[in-house]
Structure formats: structure tokens, C-alpha cells
Design brief:
Number of strands: 11
Helix content: 25-40%
Radius of gyration: 18 Å
Order of helices and strands: EHEHEEHEHEHEEHHEEEH
Shape: globular
Mean pLDDT: 95
Oligomer: single chain
Length: 254
């Protein structure tokens, strides 16, 4: 499988390192970033090619990893799907826009392409998908992050947001992909609370799900990427594992 990457930040750096070390059986052939130097630096790690336009990689790849921004999903992913290429969407918050999601699903169907969304920075998404086959009573996410990872500075804990995921991804588009992934997995606009807490040094996500299956709670305490504190290492690992699973004959998990 030949893979292209759009967005050469923290996630792309981790993916490239794993491929370079032979831990994921794919070929990283092409890299795109608005900052050409970043794309060239990653390309040099795996003897790949930095391109000036995403369209330049599409005739040569099987799949594209979007690891850039919600704007990149809106602007670039439609063209990737129209070219019949599969895409991994990391900026999953963009998919909370029902109109955009409908457009992308239609383009994927018409061009025999697939949209993959990794589990990201949390555990328990498989369980939530299974539970959604029955009746779900409630899903709540409480996210605690160091103020720095939210781009703010404060000395005391503060609740920044309480409400639905659809509004949370608009207010915190680069920090709340977890809420979007949970909502899409269960088909409902989940309840979200976002807390800036200077007492924590990790991104902490607590998920509580209740339904006719029973109840489960998960707590994920993520180490932040040194390259970008807004990104959790687990989010990058989930994309890496997805790429690895696409080349395997047996799939474990829902």
C-alpha cells in the first residue's frame, strides 16, 4: 500500500518514524503541507516526495492520511475521494457537520472509496459502537487538559464548556476530536464538559456510557506529543495501528 500524508505535524512525524523503522508495512510515498519545508523534512526520512499540491500525489497513492486541520477535511478530502482514494480522517471534528459528512459519504460511495476514522485519543470506542446496537440512555465526556494545551494560561481550574459535542467542536476545533469520535460512533450528540486544569500534566478523558447493555466508564490519561501539546500520543498511535490493520488478514475488535 502506498500512502500519502496531508499535514506534516506531530501525528505525521510519529507515523513516519514507525514506517521508517519497519513497524508498519506500508510505503509512505508522498507528503503535503502548506509549509513545504516540513513536508520535505519528513519525505527525506523515508525517501518520499514532497508535493506542492495534494492532487499531485493522487495518481500514485492508495490511501491518504489527513492529519492537518478541519479546514483540510473540507477543502481537500472531497477531491481525494473523487479520485477514488481511501482517506484516514484525523480531524474528525469536521465530520460533525452533517452537510459535509453527507457530501463525503456520497463521494466515497460514488467513487468506490472508503473513509476511515481512527479511535483517536481514547479507549472504549469499540464498546460504544457495540452498545449503540441497542438502546443508549446517555453518553458523557469530561475532558481535563493543562491550560497550555488549550492555548491559554491560568492558575486555577476552570470549566470552559458544558453542552453538546456539536457546539464543543466549533468552539475548540483543534482540541476536542474525542467528542466528535464518540458522537459519530454512537450516532448521537453526546454531552461534553471541558475543563482547563493546571493541576494535570496530561490530557484526561473520562467517558461514561449508560444503556440497555448496562454501564461502562473509561478514563484515558494521555501523554502529549512533544512536538505539539494539543496532540495526544495515543491519537497518533491509533492512526498507526489502523494503517497496520489494513494490511492484515485478521481484524480484532468491533
Amino acid at each position: 500500500m502506498i500512502v500519502g500524508i496531508v499535514g506534516c505535524g506531530a501525528i505525521a512525524n510519529l507515523i513516519t518514524g514507525f514506517v521508517r523503522d519497519g513497524k508498519v508495512p506500508v510505503e509512505l510515498g508522498f507528503f503535503y503541507d502548506r509549509d513545504l519545508e516540513r513536508a520535505e523534512n519528513l519525505a527525506s526520512m523515508v525517501d518520499g516526495t514532497a508535493v506542492l499540491d495534494v492532487a499531485d500525489m493522487l495518481p500514485h497513492v492508495d490511501l491518504v492520511v489527513e492529519a492537518a486541520s478541519p479546514e483540510a477535511v473540507r477543502e481537500l478530502v472531497p477531491g481525494i475521494l473523487e479520485a477514488g482514494r481511501d482517506v484516514v480522517v484525523m480531524s474528525v471534528g469536521a465530520l460533525m457537520d452533517p452537510e459535509l459528512r453527507s457530501v463525503l459519504e456520497k463521494k466515497a460511495s460514488e467513487n468506490n472509496a472508503r473513509i476511515h476514522v481512527p479511535s483517536g485519543a481514547i479507549v472504549g470506542l469499540d464498546g460504544l459502537k457495540a452498545a449503540s446496537m441497542g438502546s443508549i440512555e446517555s453518553v458523557k465526556l469530561v475532558t481535563r487538559k493543562p491550560p497550555r494545551s488549550l492555548g491559554i494560561s491560568m492558575d486555577e481550574k476552570k470549566v470552559l464548556y458544558t453542552g453538546k459535542a456539536s457546539e464543543a467542536v466549533k468552539r475548540f476545533p483543534l482540541n476536542i476530536n474525542v467528542a466528535a469520535a464518540l458522537s459519530l460512533a454512537c450516532g448521537r450528540d453526546i454531552d461534553v464538559e471541558i475543563i482547563a486544569d493546571p493541576a494535570v500534566d496530561r490530557n484526561v478523558h473520562e467517558v461514561t456510557v449508560k444503556g440497555d447493555f448496562g454501564e461502562f466508564k473509561t478514563i484515558t490519561e494521555n501523554v502529549r506529543c512533544s512536538i505539539n501539546p494539543k496532540t495526544s500520543v495515543m491519537a497518533a498511535y491509533s492512526a498507526i495501528r489502523l494503517l497496520k490493520s489494513l494490511s492484515e488478514n485478521m481484524h480484532i475488535g468491533t
